[in-house]
Every structure is written in structure tokens, then in C-alpha cells.
């Protein structure tokens, strides 16, 4: 974590230094304020666009075989994003419930999609199937982002509990990360509509 924090601090320092303080007057005032030395002693500056990790995305594995580990993301291109968006009715500025773990690739990508589309992101610290349905109804969420086992947990709720919630605002429910059970997908869509 410390190395990641240091990377972002260094990147933001270099980026904002280069982009916000571009005028000669500001540079001159800074040199004067520091006794003629800019950057101050001990501070190294660099071009943020040439950092080796700038175009690298490191996510955590699930840890199913032990401790979660960093995994570099490879593959994918704008065509992957386009294919997902072509099949999913994302709309800008709509409420979306994201309960998939955000330190995994799927949850993080759904969080990034929602944020980049100015969606209101509704989430919880821990997944709870009934609370998730309640969030969908309370916020009239148009999207639900989960991992497949979360569909299982929702459909394992007693019928009387599930029937308290309509989820009629949902336009889509997305899941990835493991195999989805066809019987659970069918049951979910029978109750909440053809949104998966």
C-alpha cells in the first residue's frame, strides 16, 4: 500500500506542478520563496507522462488459493468497453447499486463505468442480499452490479422477504467473475424482469 500511495503522491505532485503552475511569474515567486532553489532540496520532479506504471492497472486476485495478490491487467481495448456498453443499457446520471467487490476487476470496472457516466453510485461496506434489494427500491436504481454468488444469495432469501421488493426500476443487472447458475439467473429474471 505504501508504494501505491507514494506513486500517486509523486504522480499528482508532478502532474499538478506541470499543469497548474506554468506561468513564469509563479515559477519566479516559488524560486524567491525557497531562497533561489526550486524544487526545494530533497524533492525530485519528473514528467508524469513518462512513468513506467502510468498505463498499468494492478488489481487484486480473489485470494481463493490464499492471500489476494496483485495481478497486472493485460488485454482489453476500447472494443471491449464498447461491446459491454452495447449489451448493457447504462444511462448517464442514473442511480446504480454496485455491490461487487471493488478491489476485483469486475467491481472496479463497474465503479469506473458508473463514475465516468456521472451515475449516482449506491453501495454498502458488506454485501447483504435483502439490503441490496432495499437499496434498489429506495433509490430507484436502474442498474445492479454484482458477482454471480450474490444472485444466488438474493434468490436464497425466503419468498416473503424477496416479495417485499419489486426492483421494477432495474434496467440491467450485471455479473462477472465466476460461473452463473442458469437456474438462479432464470429465477431472478422471473421475479425481477429480464435484466441480466
Describe the structure.
The protein is an alpha/beta fold. Helix content is 43%, strand content 11%. The chain has helices spanning 2-20, 24-33, 78-87, 105-116, 129-139, 148-155, 159-162, 182-192; strands at 58-60, 70-72, 95-98, 120-122, 143-146, 172-175. It has a 4-stranded parallel beta sheet with strand order 4-3-5-6, sandwiched between helices. Strands 1-2 form a two-stranded antiparallel ribbon. Helix 4 (105-116) links the parallel strand 3 (95-98) and strand 4. Helix 5 crosses helix 6 (148-155). It is elongated.
Would you tell me the structural class of the helices and strands?
alpha/beta
Spans where pLDDT lies below 50 across 5 or more residues: 1-9
Give me the Rg, rounded. 22 Å
Query: Reading side by side through the largest sheet, how are the strands ordered?
Result: 4-3-5-6
Number of helices: 8
Strand fraction band? 5-15%
- Distance between the amino and carboxyl termini: 35 Å
Biggest beta sheet attributes:
4 strands, parallel
The run of helices and strands is HHEEHEHEHEHHEH
What is the residue-averaged pLDDT? 76
- In which range does the helix fraction lie? 40-55%
How many strand elements?
6
Shape from CA axes?
Answer: elongated
